[in-house]
Amino acid sequence: MSQITLTGIAKAYGTSVAIAPMDLTVADGEFLTLLGPSGCGKTTLMRMIAGITLPDQGAIRINGRDMAALPPEKRNVGLVFQSYALFPHMTVAANVGFGLKMRGIARDAAAERVRAALALVDLEPLAARYPRELSGGQQQRVALARAIVIEPDVLLLDEPLSNLDAKLREHLREDLRNLQQRLRVTAIYVTHDQAEAMALADRIIVMDKGRIVEEGAPVDLYRAPQTRFAAEFLGQTNVVAVTAAGLLPWNTGVAGPADGMVSIRPEDIAVTPALDGAGRVLSLTFLGPAVEYRIDIGGTVLRARDSGTGTAILPQGTQVDLTLRVPPHPLQGVA
Amino acid sequence: MRRLPQGVVAALLVLPSGGYLALFFGLPLLLAFLGSFGLYARGGDGGFTLRHYADLFGTQAYRDGLVFSTYLAIVPTLVSLAISLPLAMGLAQTFPGRKLFNALYKVPLVVPGIVAAFIVMTLFDRGGLAARLLTPIGIDLPKIVRDDWAVGVIIATAWKAVPFMTLIIGGSLGAIQKDIILAARTLGATPLTAFWRIQIPLALPGITAAFLLTFIGGMGAFAVPNLLGPVYPLPLSVHMYVNAFERNNWGLVAAMGTMLSLISVLVLLAYYRTTRSLRTAYGGEVR
Lengths: 335, 287
Hints:
The structure holds 2 protein chains of 2 kinds.
Chain A: E1 4-13, E2 16-26, E3 31-35, H1 42-50, E4 57-62, E5 65-66, E6 77-80, H2 92-102, H3 107-120, H4 136-148, E7 154-158, H5 166-183, E8 186-191, H6 194-200, E9 203-208, E10 211-216, H7 218-223, H8 228-233, E11 238-243, E12 246-247, E13 260-264, E14 269-273, E15 279-286, E16 290-297, E17 300-307, E18 319-324, E19 329-331
Helix pairs in contact in A: 2-3, 2-4, 3-4
Chain B: H1 6-36, H2 51-58, H3 60-91, H4 98-104, H5 113-124, H6 129-134, H7 151-174, H8 178-186, H9 191-219, H10 223-228, H11 236-245, H12 250-283
Helix pairs in contact in B: 1-12, 2-12, 3-7, 3-9, 5-7, 7-9, 8-9, 9-12, 11-12
C-alpha cells in the first residue's frame, strides 16, 4: 500500500516560483502523469517527492509517513532519470544490484532479484555488459530494472522515453504500462508528450507555471477539458468564440453558451465538398492515416481532420461545408 | 604513378609524431640506459661493464639515497592526495567566498618550487617566523627544516602539489553527471557511500594522472630536498649532480638515472594494477 499525499507544497528559486502552493494525492497503485510544457514545475515536483529537491513549505507523506526529515536514501523511491543516469563503471547487473547492496541484501538473494528484474525487462543476456555497450532503449530498460528491483513504494519516471525514437518509444510505453500493472506499484510519470500521457495514465495532471491547471482521466480530459490550456495542450483543437448570434464562424444559431469559448477537436469536424459551401480549403497536409485541412470560414481558420480511408482528398481552394460530429465543448472562464 | 605499399604509407604518417618522440625522448633514454653499462657513455666508451651498478648498490650512501628518493616521491604525493581530494570535493559545493577561494588556492601553481622551499625555510626554520611567533606563548616548534623525516620537504612539495592535484581531480569530479550521483542517492547510498562508490571510481583517471605526475616530480626533485632535506641521506638526484659535475662520473649518473626511471615505471605499473582491480571490484565484473 503506497499512497502519496502532498499538502501545501511550494518551491521558489529566488523570485521565480517553481511550484505554487498545491495539494495532490496519489492513490495506491495509481499511474499518475504530470503533463506540461518545460518549466511548468513537473520535474521539480517529482524531485521533491524523491527528496533530491527540498520544498520551501508543505508536507510530503508516503503512506502517512512524513518525508520532511528523510534524505533520498531513506525514502524508498525508485527514480528513472531522463538521462538514465546509469553508473558507467558498473555492469548492467551491478547497476541493477546497487540498490540491493545499499540495503544490505545478501549476495545470493540479491543476485536472484537482479536476475528476475532483468528478466522482467528482457535484458537477462546482457547482465555482464557495460552501459556504454547498450543501445538507448536497452539503457532505458536497465534504468527501469534498477528502479523497480528495490521494490519502491513509488516509482518516479522523469521523461524516461524522450531520448528514444518514435517507434521504440511506443513499444516501451506499452511495456511500461504492463509492468506497472503487474507490479501494482504507484507510479508518477513526468512528460511533456500528451500522447504518452494519455496512453499511460490513469489520471493526468496538467501543469503550467507551477500550478495545477486541470486534472482528470485521459478520456475526460481530452473530450471535456475545462480550460483552454488543457484543451490546447492535449492534442489539437479549435477554440472558437460564441456570441449571441451563435457559434462565430458559422454565425448560425448552433447551440452554445453565449459569450464564451468552445473547443472543437479537428476530428470532430466533418468536411464535405459543396459548391455553395461557406468554407474554403486553405491548405492540406497528408498524414497517412488522416488528412488535415486548414479551412477558412468567415475569416476564421479552423483545423479539420478527416480519416484518410476511402475519401477523396480535397484539393486546395475547394468550397466545403463543415458539420460538427459532436456538440462543441464549452470552456470555462477564458477569453 | 606507382602507389607506395601500405606499410610504407603508415610509417610515413607516423613519422612526424613518432619520430619526434623517438628523437627527443627515446634516444636520450636509450643513451642513458646504455651509458649506465658503460656503452657510449660521456667521457669515453669503456666497453660493457656492470661497475656502475656495483658502485651504486655497493655504496651505503647511494643505497640510502635511492630509498630516500622513493620516500620523497611517495610520501608528499600521498599527503597531497589526502588534502586535494576533500578540497576538490569542497570546491564543487557552493559556499560564500567560493570565487575568491577558487582563485587563491591556485597561487602556489605560479610560484617556482625553489621559492616555495625558501618560504618554508623562512617560516619554519630555527628562528623563523613561526618559531618567533610561537615561542612566546610556550609552543616549541619541532625541527621541520633539515629534519630526519624531511617534513620540510613534504610541506614544500605538498604546498606546490595540492593546487595542481586539486585542479585535475576537481576537473574529473566536475565531469561526472549530477544525475548519476542523485541516482545513487535514491537507490539508498548516503553522500559518503556515493562518494566512495560512484565519484571516486569515476574520477579515477584524473586522480591517477595527478598522482603519477606528482610522484614522478618528487622522484627527481633536486632543489627542494637539497634546501630543506636532512644532511643524510641525500636523495639520488643530489648524488647525480655531485657525480656529474664534481667527479665527472657519468656512467654512475646514468645508472642512478636509470634506477630512478625504473622505480617510476614500477610504481606506475603497480598503480595501474591497483586501479584496475578497484574498477573490477566496483564494476561488478566477473572474471
